[in-house]
Write a structure and sequence with these properties.
The protein is of the alpha/beta class. The chain is built from ten helices and 16 strands. The protein is globular. The chain starts with 11 loop residues before the first strand and ends with a helix.
């Protein structure tokens, strides 16, 4: 059954031939969701630049929190349009792309990947897949596609179109049937920071990466817990939060506070707020998800001492929004 804040839609299943790939690319372009085969499992894709489509993706998967998503691209030129590659990143890309390696790099100045896909971080996770259907689809779309596994969060990863349909029929627009895929581990994730860092083991052995770099990969200093904000898919680290304090479930606005509003009714004291942004005047959780990270950043830039946040219902995407806001409000 669709998630509580989703309407059931018709899910088409098409063969992954030239006509099906063209239909899938057109579906991405109009904000739709497409499941397609990769070299490991079927992925659920959305236009990485379309926040509304990404909000639908979270709804379809029932994903519990707004974790960073990997942006899949067709080639290195496309990767360099959204991320900044230093010598380390360039060396790893040349050695292992296309393939199961994800690089986390600083965003390019004109990066088009939506805040909702990067979870509000200033980095972006990028991969060039090696599966021929995935590559053909990315080339046809000519843009970045975010694509976690095409299943309900917590369910077994899908290796056939039938597996995808069993989980996601009525939730997504299209399934490209490329037959069964080879089951493999997820991509290795390397953060291209001051010290190249192994963020998640995966399909490319760390020893192979270290042989290319001529040095050992750094490892995160310690395991982190689920209350913290992920730095990259599959890895948790210290949470991002605005400089201003975040006050949740506000019933009024104090003088000098900024207000992150939700719904058509405002709060007492809003007339003296330092700034106001409304996640969704209509009270739509999907619209609120689209705006969440950008609005937090914009209000923080106003220099208010704190940000008052109106209550948001905990249904559907509201659960993920509240999860993210609790992290932003956590003591630090």
């Amino acid at each position: 059954m669709p998630a509580p804040d989703m309407q059931a839609i018709e899910t088409r299943i098409l063969p992954a031939d030239a006509a099906g790939i063209a239909q899938a690319a057109a579906t991405f372009a109009r904000g739709g969701l497409v499941a397609f085969p990769t070299e490991t499992v079927y992925g659920l894709g959305a236009d990485a630049a379309n926040a509304a489509a990404i909000a639908r993706l979270y709804q379809a998967k029932g994903r519990p929190a707004f974790n960073p998503l990997i942006a899949h691209v067709a080639d290195i030129a496309a990767a360099q349009r959204i991320g900044r590659f230093d010598a380390t990143a360039e060396r790893l890309a040349a050695a292992f792309w296309p393939g199961p390696l994800t690089l986390v790099v600083p965003q390019a100045a004109d990066c088009t990947v939506a805040d909702l896909a990067t979870a509000g971080l200033d980095t972006v996770a990028i991969r060039i897949p090696s599966h021929p259907i995935a590559r053909a689809l990315l080339a046809a779309f000519a843009g970045a596609v975010v694509a976690p596994s095409a299943n309900i969060s917590g369910h077994v990863s899908p290796t056939t179109a039938a597996h995808v349909a069993a989980d996601l029929s009525g939730r997504i627009d299209l399934i490209l049937d490329g037959g069964p895929v080879e089951v493999g581990v997820e991509s290795t994730i390397v953060g291209c920071f001051d010290e190249p860092t192994l963020l998640r083991p995966g399909g490319v052995p760390s020893e192979a990466i270290e042989a290319v770099l001529g040095r050992a990969l750094a490892r995160p200093a310690a395991e982190t817990d689920t209350s913290e904000q992920p730095l990259a898919p599959g890895m948790l680290t210290s949470h991002y939060a605005p400089r201003a304090a975040v006050r949740l479930d506000a019933s009024e606005v104090a003088a000098g506070e900024a207000l992150l509003a939700f719904g058509p009714v405002t709060l007492p004291g809003a007339d003296q707020a330092a700034a106001i942004l409304n996640l969704s005047p209509l009270g739509d959780p999907a619209e609120a998800a689209m705006h969440l990270f950008g609005y937090l950043r914009s209000l923080d830039a106003k220099g208010a001492r704190s940000i008052a946040v109106m209550p948001i219902p905990n249904d559907g995407l509201g659960e993920a929004i509240n999860d993210r806001l609790r992290r932003a409000a956590a003591p630090r």
